[in-house]
Protein backbone atom coordinates (compact mmCIF):
# COMPACT_ATOMS: atom_id res chain seq x y z
CA UNK A 1 0.00 0.00 0.00
CA UNK A 2 1.30 3.46 -0.93
CA UNK A 3 0.03 4.94 2.33
CA UNK A 4 1.97 2.44 4.45
CA UNK A 5 5.20 3.11 2.57
CA UNK A 6 4.76 6.87 2.82
CA UNK A 7 4.12 6.64 6.56
CA UNK A 8 7.25 4.53 7.06
CA UNK A 9 9.25 6.98 4.97
CA UNK A 10 7.91 9.92 6.99
CA UNK A 11 8.85 8.20 10.26
CA UNK A 12 12.40 7.60 8.99
CA UNK A 13 12.75 11.19 7.84
CA UNK A 14 11.49 12.61 11.14
CA UNK A 15 14.25 10.76 12.98
CA UNK A 16 16.97 11.89 10.55
CA UNK A 17 19.43 14.74 10.81
CA UNK A 18 21.30 14.13 7.55
CA UNK A 19 19.17 13.59 4.45
CA UNK A 20 20.40 13.02 0.91
CA UNK A 21 18.22 12.83 -2.20
CA UNK A 22 19.32 11.40 -5.55
CA UNK A 23 17.11 12.30 -8.52
CA UNK A 24 17.06 10.99 -12.07
CA UNK A 25 15.27 11.53 -15.35
CA UNK A 26 11.89 10.41 -14.00
CA UNK A 27 11.24 13.56 -11.99
CA UNK A 28 12.04 15.72 -15.03
CA UNK A 29 9.95 13.59 -17.38
CA UNK A 30 6.92 14.40 -15.20
CA UNK A 31 7.47 18.07 -16.10
CA UNK A 32 7.58 17.20 -19.79
CA UNK A 33 11.35 17.16 -20.34
CA UNK A 34 12.15 14.68 -23.11
CA UNK A 35 14.74 12.04 -22.29
CA UNK A 36 16.48 12.56 -25.67
CA UNK A 37 17.34 8.89 -25.72
CA UNK A 38 15.65 5.71 -26.89
CA UNK A 39 13.23 5.40 -29.84
CA UNK A 40 12.27 9.09 -29.78
CA UNK A 41 15.77 10.40 -29.25
CA UNK A 42 16.40 11.47 -32.83
CA UNK A 43 17.24 15.02 -33.87
CA UNK A 44 17.45 15.53 -37.62
CA UNK A 45 19.34 12.35 -38.52
CA UNK A 46 21.47 12.24 -35.37
CA UNK A 47 21.22 10.40 -32.08
CA UNK A 48 22.38 11.76 -28.74
CA UNK A 49 25.21 9.23 -28.67
CA UNK A 50 26.59 10.78 -31.88
CA UNK A 51 26.42 14.38 -30.65
CA UNK A 52 27.19 14.37 -26.93
CA UNK A 53 30.87 13.50 -27.25
CA UNK A 54 34.14 15.44 -27.22
CA UNK A 55 34.86 14.04 -30.67
CA UNK A 56 31.62 15.42 -32.10
CA UNK A 57 32.37 18.85 -30.66
CA UNK A 58 35.89 18.84 -32.09
CA UNK A 59 34.55 17.76 -35.47
CA UNK A 60 31.59 20.14 -35.74
CA UNK A 61 30.98 22.49 -32.78
CA UNK A 62 28.29 24.37 -34.69
CA UNK A 63 26.23 21.21 -35.17
CA UNK A 64 26.59 20.22 -31.52
CA UNK A 65 25.55 23.70 -30.34
CA UNK A 66 22.58 23.72 -32.73
CA UNK A 67 21.40 20.54 -31.06
CA UNK A 68 21.86 21.99 -27.57
CA UNK A 69 20.11 25.18 -28.63
CA UNK A 70 17.14 23.05 -29.73
CA UNK A 71 17.18 21.13 -26.44
CA UNK A 72 17.34 24.33 -24.40
CA UNK A 73 14.34 25.67 -26.29
CA UNK A 74 12.30 22.60 -25.36
CA UNK A 75 13.36 22.66 -21.71
CA UNK A 76 12.65 26.40 -21.39
CA UNK A 77 8.97 25.68 -22.04
CA UNK A 78 8.48 23.36 -19.05
CA UNK A 79 8.15 24.13 -15.35
CA UNK A 80 9.32 22.43 -12.15
CA UNK A 81 6.65 20.09 -10.83
CA UNK A 82 5.40 19.62 -7.24
CA UNK A 83 8.15 17.07 -6.61
CA UNK A 84 10.82 19.67 -7.39
CA UNK A 85 9.05 22.17 -5.14
CA UNK A 86 8.96 19.80 -2.16
CA UNK A 87 12.67 19.05 -2.42
CA UNK A 88 13.44 22.77 -2.53
CA UNK A 89 11.43 23.35 0.66
CA UNK A 90 13.10 20.45 2.43
CA UNK A 91 16.51 22.16 2.39
CA UNK A 92 15.41 24.20 5.39
CA UNK A 93 14.00 21.23 7.32
CA UNK A 94 17.13 19.24 8.20
CA UNK A 95 20.51 20.32 9.63
CA UNK A 96 22.13 18.66 6.63
CA UNK A 97 20.29 18.22 3.32
CA UNK A 98 22.05 17.49 0.03
CA UNK A 99 20.36 17.09 -3.34
CA UNK A 100 22.30 15.04 -5.89
CA UNK A 101 20.91 14.99 -9.41
CA UNK A 102 21.74 13.22 -12.64
CA UNK A 103 19.62 15.75 -14.54
CA UNK A 104 21.08 18.64 -16.52
CA UNK A 105 17.85 20.58 -17.15
CA UNK A 106 18.19 23.05 -14.27
CA UNK A 107 14.66 22.44 -12.95
CA UNK A 108 15.87 21.91 -9.38
CA UNK A 109 17.52 25.37 -9.20
CA UNK A 110 14.44 26.91 -10.83
CA UNK A 111 12.31 25.34 -8.11
CA UNK A 112 14.51 26.97 -5.46
CA UNK A 113 17.01 24.24 -4.54
CA UNK A 114 20.46 25.58 -3.75
CA UNK A 115 22.52 22.82 -2.13
CA UNK A 116 22.79 20.75 -5.32
CA UNK A 117 25.42 18.46 -6.73
CA UNK A 118 24.83 18.24 -10.49
CA UNK A 119 26.65 15.06 -11.44
CA UNK A 120 26.29 15.48 -15.19
CA UNK A 121 26.45 19.26 -15.41
CA UNK A 122 23.88 21.88 -16.35
CA UNK A 123 22.60 22.72 -19.83
CA UNK A 124 22.20 26.38 -18.82
CA UNK A 125 25.93 26.83 -18.26
CA UNK A 126 28.93 27.00 -20.59
CA UNK A 127 32.51 26.06 -19.90
CA UNK A 128 35.65 27.53 -21.48
CA UNK A 129 38.00 24.71 -22.49
CA UNK A 130 40.98 27.09 -22.15
CA UNK A 131 40.66 28.25 -18.53
CA UNK A 132 37.80 26.04 -17.29
CA UNK A 133 35.60 29.00 -16.34
CA UNK A 134 31.92 28.07 -15.98
CA UNK A 135 29.36 30.77 -16.76
CA UNK A 136 25.54 30.83 -16.78
CA UNK A 137 23.84 31.29 -20.14
CA UNK A 138 20.04 31.37 -20.34
CA UNK A 139 19.69 32.78 -23.87
CA UNK A 140 16.88 31.11 -25.84
CA UNK A 141 17.74 30.99 -28.63
CA UNK A 142 21.47 31.41 -28.25
CA UNK A 143 22.76 34.81 -29.32
CA UNK A 144 25.49 33.17 -31.40
CA UNK A 145 26.20 29.61 -32.48
CA UNK A 146 28.68 28.46 -31.48
CA UNK A 147 29.06 30.79 -28.47
CA UNK A 148 32.48 32.13 -27.56
CA UNK A 149 34.32 33.00 -24.36
CA UNK A 150 34.00 36.74 -23.64
CA UNK A 151 37.63 36.82 -22.45
CA UNK A 152 39.76 34.58 -24.63
CA UNK A 153 37.43 34.56 -27.67
CA UNK A 154 37.65 30.79 -28.01
CA UNK A 155 34.71 28.42 -28.43
CA UNK A 156 32.94 27.44 -25.22
CA UNK A 157 31.26 24.07 -24.75
CA UNK A 158 28.12 23.07 -22.89
CA UNK A 159 28.81 22.39 -19.21
CA UNK A 160 27.74 18.78 -19.66
CA UNK A 161 29.52 15.50 -18.96
CA UNK A 162 29.61 13.83 -22.37
CA UNK A 163 29.88 10.18 -23.30
CA UNK A 164 33.43 9.02 -22.74
CA UNK A 165 34.16 11.68 -20.12
CA UNK A 166 34.60 11.23 -16.38
CA UNK A 167 32.49 13.05 -13.84
CA UNK A 168 34.03 16.05 -12.13
CA UNK A 169 36.18 14.62 -9.34
CA UNK A 170 35.18 17.18 -6.71
CA UNK A 171 31.48 16.73 -7.46
CA UNK A 172 31.46 12.93 -7.30
CA UNK A 173 33.69 12.99 -4.20
CA UNK A 174 31.23 15.33 -2.47
CA UNK A 175 28.34 13.06 -3.54
CA UNK A 176 30.01 10.00 -2.00
CA UNK A 177 30.84 11.92 1.18
CA UNK A 178 27.24 13.08 1.58
CA UNK A 179 25.85 9.63 0.80
CA UNK A 180 28.08 7.88 3.34
CA UNK A 181 27.11 10.42 6.03
CA UNK A 182 23.36 10.19 5.39
CA UNK A 183 20.84 8.94 7.93
CA UNK A 184 18.25 8.66 5.15
CA UNK A 185 18.71 8.59 1.39
CA UNK A 186 15.82 9.00 -1.03
CA UNK A 187 16.31 7.78 -4.59
CA UNK A 188 13.72 9.45 -6.80
CA UNK A 189 12.91 8.75 -10.45
CA UNK A 190 16.16 7.06 -11.43
CA UNK A 191 16.62 3.76 -13.22
CA UNK A 192 19.63 2.94 -11.00
CA UNK A 193 21.49 1.79 -14.12
CA UNK A 194 23.94 4.65 -14.76
CA UNK A 195 27.16 4.49 -12.80
CA UNK A 196 28.74 5.89 -10.74
CA UNK A 197 25.47 7.56 -9.65
CA UNK A 198 23.84 4.14 -9.19
CA UNK A 199 26.54 3.25 -6.65
CA UNK A 200 25.72 6.16 -4.33
CA UNK A 201 22.70 4.43 -2.69
CA UNK A 202 24.89 1.39 -1.98
CA UNK A 203 27.45 3.68 -0.36
CA UNK A 204 24.70 5.10 1.85
CA UNK A 205 23.43 1.63 2.78
CA UNK A 206 26.96 0.55 3.60
CA UNK A 207 27.13 3.08 6.42
CA UNK A 208 23.69 2.30 7.81
CA UNK A 209 21.41 4.79 6.04
CA UNK A 210 17.75 4.02 5.51
CA UNK A 211 17.17 3.80 1.76
CA UNK A 212 13.84 5.00 0.35
CA UNK A 213 13.04 4.48 -3.33
CA UNK A 214 10.29 6.43 -5.13
CA UNK A 215 9.70 5.20 -8.66
CA UNK A 216 6.73 4.06 -10.77
CA UNK A 217 8.61 0.86 -11.64
CA UNK A 218 10.91 -1.57 -9.90
CA UNK A 219 14.64 -1.01 -10.48
CA UNK A 220 17.84 -2.90 -9.65
CA UNK A 221 17.83 -0.93 -6.40
CA UNK A 222 14.37 -2.04 -5.25
CA UNK A 223 15.46 -5.17 -3.40
CA UNK A 224 18.04 -3.16 -1.42
CA UNK A 225 15.64 -0.36 -0.47
CA UNK A 226 14.29 -0.53 3.05
CA UNK A 227 11.21 1.34 1.82
CA UNK A 228 10.06 1.22 -1.80
CA UNK A 229 7.11 3.33 -2.94
CA UNK A 230 5.64 2.83 -6.41
CA UNK A 231 4.48 6.10 -7.88
CA UNK A 232 5.45 9.38 -9.52
CA UNK A 233 7.67 11.83 -7.68
CA UNK A 234 5.27 14.70 -8.34
CA UNK A 235 2.57 12.81 -6.47
CA UNK A 236 4.47 10.87 -3.80
CA UNK A 237 6.77 13.65 -2.57
CA UNK A 238 3.90 16.08 -1.81
CA UNK A 239 2.06 13.24 -0.06
CA UNK A 240 5.17 12.45 1.97
CA UNK A 241 5.57 16.14 2.78
CA UNK A 242 2.01 16.26 4.11
CA UNK A 243 2.73 13.28 6.38
CA UNK A 244 5.84 15.04 7.69
CA UNK A 245 3.88 18.17 8.52
CA UNK A 246 1.46 16.18 10.64
CA UNK A 247 4.18 14.96 13.00
Quick tags:
alpha/beta, 247 residues, 11 strands, Rossmann fold, elongated, 6-stranded parallel β-sheet, 3-stranded antiparallel β-sheet, SIR2/SIRT2 'Small Domain'
Number of domains: 2
Helix fraction bin: 25-40%
Order of strands in the sheet with most strands: 5-4-1-9-10-11
Largest sheet: 6 strands, parallel
Distance between the termini: 20 Å
Q: Any idea of the CATH class of the largest domain?
A: Alpha Beta
Mean pLDDT over all positions: 93
The assembly state of the depicted protein chains is single chain
Verbal overview:
The protein is α/β, with parallel strands linked by helices and 247 residues long. The protein has 2 domains: 2-33 and 78-120 and 164-246, Rossmann fold (3-Layer(aba) Sandwich); 38-77 and 129-160, SIR2/SIRT2 'Small Domain' (2-Layer Sandwich). The chain is 37% helix and 19% strand. The protein contains 10 helices and 11 strands. Helix 9 links the parallel strand 9 (184-188) and strand 10. Helix 6 crosses helix 10 (233-246). The longest helix has 15 residues, at 61-75. The radius of gyration is 19 Å and the shape is elongated. It starts with a helix and ends with a helix.
Amino acid sequence: MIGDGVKQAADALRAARRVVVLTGAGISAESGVPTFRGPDGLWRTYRVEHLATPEAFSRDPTLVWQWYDWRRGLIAKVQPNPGHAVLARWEARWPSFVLITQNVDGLHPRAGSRNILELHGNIWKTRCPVDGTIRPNHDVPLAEIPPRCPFCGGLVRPHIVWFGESLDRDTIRAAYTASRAADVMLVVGTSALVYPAADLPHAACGTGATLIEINPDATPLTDDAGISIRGKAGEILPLLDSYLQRG
